[in-house]
Amino acid sequence: MNGQQAYLEQLGQAAKTSGFALANLGIKAKNQLLAAIATELDADRSTILAANCRDVTAAQKAGLNDAMIDRLQLDDARLSAIIADIDNVIALADPVGEEFDNRLLDNGIRLSRRRVPLGVIGVIYEARPNVTVEIAVLALKTGNAVILRGGKETRESNVALAAAIRRALDKEGLPADCVQLIDNPDRALVNGLLKLDKYVDMIVPRGGQGLQRLCAEQATIPVILGGIGICHLYLDKDADTSRAADVIINAKVQRPTVCNALDTLLIHQDKLDWLPKVAEALKEKGVRLVACEQSRQRLLNAGIAADMATEESFATEWLSLTLGIQVVRDIDAAIAHIRTYSSGHSEAILTDNLTAATYFMNEVNSAAVYVNASTRFTDGGQFGLGAEVAVSTQKLHARGPMGLEALTTYKWLAIGDYSCR
Amino acid sequence: MNGQQAYLEQLGQAAKTSGFALANLGIKAKNQLLAAIATELDADRSTILAANCRDVTAAQKAGLNDAMIDRLQLDDARLSAIIADIDNVIALADPVGEEFDNRLLDNGIRLSRRRVPLGVIGVIYEARPNVTVEIAVLALKTGNAVILRGGKETRESNVALAAAIRRALDKEGLPADCVQLIDNPDRALVNGLLKLDKYVDMIVPRGGQGLQRLCAEQATIPVILGGIGICHLYLDKDADTSRAADVIINAKVQRPTVCNALDTLLIHQDKLDWLPKVAEALKEKGVRLVACEQSRQRLLNAGIAADMATEESFATEWLSLTLGIQVVRDIDAAIAHIRTYSSGHSEAILTDNLTAATYFMNEVNSAAVYVNASTRFTDGGQFGLGAEVAVSTQKLHARGPMGLEALTTYKWLAIGDYSCR
Questions:
Q1: CA-to-CA distance for B303 and B269, rounded, in angstroms?
Q2: How far is Cα A401 from Cα A383, in angstroms, rounded to an integer?
Q3: B352 has a chain A CB within 8 A of its CB
Q4: Residue A250: which of B107, B419, B110, B416 has the closest Cα?
């Protein structure tokens, strides 16, 4: 075993052992811990902001773009918001401990399922210091130990944040190793973490396609893939065009850099003459259009510029003010397009026709399927989950926005009377 | 792309497309399909039994042991039992289509979760022809397409069984590719199947440690690991010894070759003098004892032979008439032993003490935790699930015995009124 392997073994072992100390804590003790974390972070403001300042300086030197620097930067107000968010998590109901499917078996055994923490969660994420606090708090709220691996650009901030969290754990008489940070930027540690199946129960990668793929390919631990959204909106022939433009614009421009933003507009051929109207409004918002041949021609005729769509462009998650457009013959062609290009995140139909709406909901099998609503609603907060661990685009365990329950599993409890089979 | 890759691509694509045809079938149509499969299998008896006969002959030539040959052999009665089991699946409730967590969001959107098929399930299993029918039927009942990869020793039987199933699909107007069999014994196809994440939603390996490990390491698709049980029974100081022996014997000898059979007896030190009594009864049943130093000494003093336990023996799933024995100081030592050696399958405590029982249920975090009952109850049928896809020992998606619901996922449905965020 080399040094790195030994380090990872120790990390995993410490997380697993610490997890046992959390598993049966009552909600009062867990909320008290969360409050203590808020207190420590607040008391540690100057240290945290100084550390973040070093990260920002290094990022500027390294020539990171402004958007990235903005995402990793903290200030007093942002830190206050992070701390205030802890109160929101304290206010959430704790799913742990619930018993369900309670039944008396024919053989006299009383059987039930009890919701329990997963144990140890590994989270790999990018240069966003707020995620360090957010994930630690959600994991602790559900009685899980967590191993954090944040982006190297926020290393200093994460070290300072994790230190404050660990101090709170310690003050509450709990093992500090309930929250551990891998602060060594060596990429080999990510690969090592992905194979710690002896200790880690779930990996949540919060990042782009490359990270998701790495986890799918390297992990021997169950991974929750997600956060990649190639999202579609189908404008049906029976859509109310007097109201449709607002939804399309909202889905595309309200926050174009996130996974639930619209990527492709599928427009029924009968509505093609309406296309220039919404296209003009989109153009005014700065949206670049990437259109199929038929729609592009119609747009050009109306004096609206559009690039030519390709197979590749339809398979692109834009994360920017770009919108693909495809004319479809009918609803089946729209569904076929979605089945070919969707990442299984969020799709919408705009229609006043009940049959079309029902058919679309039945046949489209993405995590979230909308009738007459913007894809932007796919979000733990919007869905009333109170928190969002990630948005899963796979089908096992949790699908779509993941709330606290996604950080739990269940065990079967069976009480007999010296019962034999 | 080489020939094998092209074959796998086509297999996956066909499964995915076929799955869409199943996804929205009503329960009546699905049950009619299952009945048609029973009819075809019945009509095909002579072909199936002849194929199986070829497998048996080949297995005998290859020198397989009697137990293995017995497992792969079919006769008229066994085939009748397989067919009759289809009626049991027909009688089960269909989890697909259920809507739950229906709620009206603040923004006026009506949100719910609808239970839907996973899509495509890949199942890798050993030389048991009954599994071919069982898994195909469970998958179809829940609207899933399935790719089957059975043991090479039952290749001929599986080809005949799959042909009958596919004929039934065809007669019911459904794509035959809803059920596909990989009948080429090349192991590389298993590795290829494990990476078909573009088409396959879940892999269920039904086999030993080697297969489970291969899947954990190679799959880019979510895998349900399971079926490995290093199971413990802790005899507490407050156990009723007049009733305990029956449970211990049942857990060990009622069916020693399966995953929920007992592997290690943990005995409280105060009960050590009672050990020879149960040990004698176990010996009478042909059980070999592998005991820790203290218990071995006590047994030897009573004239009962026992082998010496080691770290390795405690980490062994016996699958045979062998029982490990470890004396423990107290309940915490028992729990520590379980945490070290358990595979997370099934553990039991025998006690009349409520505090001990509660503590054990809280602190032991295996898929099934028993108080005063044999570990042998961990089974889909015993738990009232009606069917058993597998017994999961991981914590995501499904844990313990997996019924039909484990072959489904959900999608979020949201109905708005041209709603924007």
A1: 19
A2: 8
A3: no
A4: B419
- Average of pLDDT values for A75-91? 96
Q: How many residues does chain B have?
A: 421
Rounded to the nearest angstrom, the minimum Cα separation between B118 and chain A is 6
Neighboring chain A residues of B376 at a CB cutoff of 8 Å: 420-421
Residues A211-232 pLDDT 10s = 999 999 999 999 999 989 999 9
Residue B399 sits at the chain A interface (C-beta within 8 Å)? yes
Chain B residue with the nearest C-alpha to that of A370 = B414
> How far does A145 lie from chain B, in Å, by closest CA?
15
Q: Hey, what are B64's tokens?
A: 């397989």
Please state the pTM of the whole predicted model.
0.95
Give CA–CA dist A71/B288, Å, rounded: 63
Burial of residue B9, with CB atoms counted within 10 A of its CB: 0-12 exposed, 13-18 middle, 19 or more buried: middle
Is A340 within 8 Å of chain B by CB? no
Report how far residue A103's alpha carbon sits from residue B153's, in angstroms, rounded to the nearest whole number. 41
Rounded to 5 degrees, what are φ and ψ at B319? 55, 30
Q: Residues of chain A with pLDDT > 90: what percent? A: 95
For residue B299, report the phi and psi dihedrals to the nearest 5 degrees. Answer: -70, -45
A416 and B373 in contact by Cβ < 8 A? yes
Query: CA B393 to CA B349: how far, in whole Å?
Result: 19
Q: How confident is the model at residue B387 (pLDDT cuts 50, 70, 90)?
A: confident
A350 neighbourhood in chain B, CB within 8 Å = 418
- Determine the distance in angstroms separating the CA of A156 from the nearest CA of chain B, rounded to an integer: 33
Task: Provide the ipTM.
Answer: 0.95
Q: CB contact, 8 Å: A414 with chain B?
A: yes
Compare CB distances from B411 to A197, A365, A376 and report the shortest one's residue.
Answer: A365
Backbone angles phi, psi at A290, to 5 degrees: -125, 100
Q: Is A312 on the interface with B (CB under 8 A)?
A: no
Residue B1, pLDDT > 70, answer no
Alpha helices, DSSP H, located in B62-187:
66-72, 76-91, 129-141, 155-171
**Interface check B300 vs A, CB under 8 A:** no
What sign has the CA pseudo-torsion B118, B123, B129, B131?
negative
Q: B118: nearest CA in chain A?
A: A395
Q: Which residues contact residue B78 at a Cβ distance below 8 angstroms, ignoring those fewer than 6 apart?
A: B130
pLDDT given for residue A1 in this prediction: 66
Token pair for residue A218? Answer: 């390297």
Contacts of residue B45, Cβ cutoff 8 Å, sequence gap at least 6: B76, B79
8 A C-beta contact, residue B333 and residue B268: no
Nearest chain B Cα distance for residue A306, angstroms = 25
- Say yes or no: B93 contacts chain A, CB-CB below 8 A: no
DSSP-assigned beta bridge partners for residue B146:
B121, B179
Name the nearest CA neighbour of B160 among B49, B260, B23, B68.
Answer: B49
Cα dist. A367→A316, A345, A391, B199 in Å? 18, 5, 9, 16
B244 in contact with A at a CB cutoff of 8 Å?
yes
| CB-count burial class (<10 Å; 0-12, 13-18, 19+) for A61 | exposed
Model confidence at A189, pLDDT cuts 50, 70, 90, reads very high
Q: Phi first, then psi: what are they for B187, rounded to 5°?
A: -65, -25
Cβ–Cβ under 8 Å, residues A291 and A388: no
Please tell me the distance from the alpha carbon of residue A53 to that of residue A44, in angstroms, as a whole number: 14
Contact A378 B412 (CB under 8 A): yes
Over residues B316-373, the pLDDT tens digits come to: 999 999 999 999 999 999 999 999 999 999 999 999 999 999 999 999 999 999 999 9
Going by the DSSP 8-state scheme, the letter that residue B226 receives in this structure is B
Whether B365 has its CB under 8 Å from any CB of chain A: the answer is: yes
Does B396 contact A399 at a Cβ distance shorter than 8 Å?
Answer: no
Phi-psi region of B101 (alpha: psi -120 to 50; beta: other; left: phi over 0): left
